Amino acid sequence: DLAEDRSSYEVVVVADEDDVPEAPGARVLVGPPGRTMGQMTRTGCEAAYGELVFLLNDDVTPRTQGWDRRVIEAARTFADGVALVHVND
User: Fold this and answer.
1) CA dist 3 → 15, 16, 33, 60 (Å)
2) Which residues fall within 8 angstroms of residue 80, CB to CB, at 6 or more apart?
3) What is the pTM of this model?
4) Which of 32, 35, 52, 56 has its CA 20 to 30 A from that of 16?
5) Neighbour count for residue 15 (Cβ, 10 Å)
6) Integer Cα distance of 56 and 67 in angstroms
């Protein structure tokens, strides 16, 4: 884990019941297959406890040391609390 502070974020995984991943330390939300990406994203956002939501899919692997701090710092530069922070990993 390349995160600087593992306590600074939670991991919520939204998966179809026919494709449940192994995700130690994550909260895994399982539902029926066939849901749209929008439905799955909404499920994850509604379940998240955090102030910021950082969406990743199964094709993304954070590879930058301290990625969590960098994302939080970038998001906090927007006074209205709304930002799109993109990764380059």
Assistant:
1) 23, 27, 31, 15
2) none
3) 0.76
4) 52
5) 16
6) 13
